[in-house]
Amino acid sequence: MPNERVALYLQDAHSLQDGIKYAQYAESKGFEAVWQAESRLVRDAIVPMAAFAATTERIKIGAGVINNWTRNIGLLAATWLTLDDLAPDRMICGIGAWWDPLAKNVGIERRKPLLAMRETVEVLRRLLRMENVTFHGEFHHVTGIELDVVHGRREPRNVPIYIGATGDKMMELTGEIADGVLLNYCVPPEYNDRAMELLEAGAKKAGRSMDEIDRPQLVVCSVDLDRKKAIEAAKVLLTQYLAQQPHIAKASGVSEDIVKQVQSILTWPATIEQIHQAMQYVPDEFVLKISATGTPDEVRAKVDEYRRRGCTCPVLYPMSDPYLMIDTFAQS
Fold first, then answer.
1. How many CA atoms within 13 Å lie on the side-chain side of 292?
2. Does 109 score more than 60 pLDDT?
3. Predicted pLDDT at 2
4. By the 8 A CB rule, do 329 and 292 touch?
5. Which residues contact 266 (CB under 8 A, 6 or more apart)?
6. Is the Cβ–Cβ distance between 302 and 259 less than 8 Å?
7. Which residues on neighbouring strands pair with residue 318, listed in sequence order?
8. Residue 58: exposed, middle, or buried by beta-carbon count in 10 A (0-12, 13-18, 19+)?
9. Which is nearest to 181 in space by CA: 160, 204, 205?
10. Angle, CA 275 vertex, CA 272 and CA 276 arms, to 5°
11. CA-CA distances (angstroms) from residue 299 to 32, 234, 292, 316?
12. What b/e sequence results for 299-322 when a residue is b if at least 16 CB atoms lie within 10 Å of its CB, and e otherwise?
């Protein structure tokens, strides 16, 4: 399996100190990137990304993903400028439209998400090109601003922008305006068929080809020499996602009965006891359908299914032993 692109995904299942070690180990094994989540109110992406950047030398570092609602566009551009100063040409800005009910519960009204994303990407990209920007849209209003670099590199920054798209319209927009898409996890491989059609439709609008759109994909990866232990480890995460993130539950294709049963048990935030109670209603077959779970040979075979359906770089979230998972996909 030489020279196949592969990346690591980290969220909050591991301590930040351990995450740094996993990023370093992944770099030593030929992984091309480490992506840091920012979803629930648990861990922001920027601080871990800075930690990974400061403690590695070559591996790329992506946000998987921040949202386009909670950071002013000037601060957003300054943040990526700063990260690029820390690790030049290694940073990837992954950005998404967030999700309800979480956004609503913290006072964010996610109206016109497509227009909001289009404006964010345009203004952010122009600022990172070190342009002086005046832009008056519906969501962003800036007048004569630029990144005010006095002490440091003034050249345009190479920070590709990837959109974490799940819905059809956002997927098509991604094909039109982004450098890449970060495809979601907790979906079966066949989910990608429709995603590729939508990306291509968006690309055609902009006169682009699919080859110009990078397509990494998050994949829950639970690998263990004991298949039963691998399934149980994956089920902890998948149970929580079914209850708390409706857009992922919808994309996963799981039955409404299972979702309602799980949601009736879990509060927000969920406790580990509630998750273990609800796990009994999540079938093993469902876990195997929407994740790469099992023995090393089984998870490699499942990840290859996502590759065959358009994923250019699996971004693997370890749910059991991270070192075993990294070794399973080692490129060096």
1. 28
2. yes
3. 56
4. no
5. 239, 240, 243, 244, 274, 275, 278
6. no
7. 221
8. exposed
9. 160
10. 90
11. 19, 12, 5, 10
12. bbebbbebbebbbbbbbbbbbbbb
Amino acid at 241: Y
CA 231 to chain CA centroid, nearest Å: 22
- pTM for this one? 0.93
Asked if 290 contacts 61 with a C-beta cutoff of 8 angstroms, the reply is no
Q: Which of 107, 56, 103 has the alpha carbon at shortest distance from 83? A: 56
Task: Collapse the DSSP code of 104 into the 3-class scheme (helix H, G, I; strand E, B; otherwise coil) and give the result.
Answer: helix
Helix (H, G, I), strand (E, B) or coil at 253: coil
Q: How far apart are CA 140 and CA 72, in angstroms?
A: 9
Confidence bin at 258 (pLDDT 50/70/90): confident
**Structure tokens belonging to residue 268:** 């927000």
CB atoms within 10 A of CB 239: 25
**What are the respective helix, strand and coil percentages of the chain, to the nearest 5?**
45, 15, 35
pLDDT, one tens digit per residue, over 135-176 is 999 999 999 999 999 999 999 999 999 999 999 999 999 999
Cα 92 to Cα 36, 60, 84, 119, 214, distances in angstroms: 10, 7, 9, 18, 12
Contact 288, 197 (CB under 8 A): no
- CA-CA distance, 259 to 250, in Å (whole number)? 9
How is residue 225 written in tokens?
């020499």
**What CA–CA distance (Å, rounded) separates 42 from 141?**
30
Integer CA distances (angstroms), 85 to 66, 126, 152, 157, in order: 19, 18, 8, 9
The first and second tokens of residue 44, run together, are 């922001």
